[in-house]
Prior knowledge:
Elements: E1 2-8, E2 12-18, E3 24-25, E4 32-33, E5 36-49, E6 52-64, E7 73-75, H1 90-97
Parallel strand pairs: 2-6
Antiparallel strand pairs: 1-2, 3-4, 5-6, 6-7
Zinc ion is lined by residues 26, 28-29, 31, 65, 67, 70, 72.
Amino acid sequence: xxxxxxxxxxxxxxxxxxxxxxxxxxxxxxxxxxxxxxxxxxxxxxxxxxxxxxxxxxxxxxxxxxxxxxxxxxxxxxxxxxxxxxxxxxxxxxxxxxxxxx
Length: 102
Ligand SMILES: [Zn+2]
């Protein structure tokens, strides 16, 4: 992820980030796509700093698969940071359970 801005929000710290923009692999057929359909934002909580919550707002791309017959639209994944359907980064989960997430 690329961090674009960090802001002090009093009780919390806000981080605005985005993905680097590399082509994303279609989960259906595996083809690489840099054809952006739209952008979406996800907000997740990261490890606290100095007792303050860290909220990371990440811009991710929704891409269109270039393969004829597939044409799947899919949201890119940020492995190791954002996993599908989770609202926290994997770092607190690793800490809480003591088992690394692969
Ligand atoms: Zn595809």
